[in-house]
Specification:
Layout lengths: L2 H9 L12 H23 L5 H22 L7 H36 L4
Helix pairs in contact: 2-3
């Protein structure tokens, strides 16, 4: 917006428009996709899927929904790559470190049971 247009808006009592405006169709599409993913998540319980498949599907649908929310409603899809990395990379690294700690804990308990035996 050039200076004369902004000045004309201010004289007319309107605020000059700044920032991005995304089409309402995008938001409605994302809401629809969130609804469908939630329906799939509920279908996992309704169909009686058990075991690791159940938890894998539920976590997959949760991650897809979280990704949509972060990308569209938090406007991460339109941000600079450096800002996206600054916001999303630390939690991802924390999850990697938690996975490493779980693996180390399993190894530790296995080693203790193998060398010290079970406490009776």
């Amino acid at each position: 917006m050039n200076e004369t247009t902004a000045h004309a808006h201010i004289q007319a009592g309107q605020r000059p428009q700044t920032g991005q405006q995304h089409p309402i169709r995008l938001y409605l599409l994302v809401w629809g996709m969130l609804f469908v993913l939630s329906a799939f998540s509920y279908m996992v319980d309704y169909l009686g899927i058990q075991g690791y498949l159940r938890w894998t599907l539920i976590l997959l649908f949760m991650m897809l929904k979280a990704g949509l929310i972060v990308a569209v409603f938090m406007h991460m899809a339109w941000e600079r790559l450096a800002l996206v990395y600054a916001i999303l990379l630390p939690p991802l690294l924390v999850l990697v470190f938690v996975a490493l700690m779980v693996s180390e804990a399993d190894y530790t308990i296995f080693t203790r049971l193998a060398f010290f035996g079970t406490a009776s």
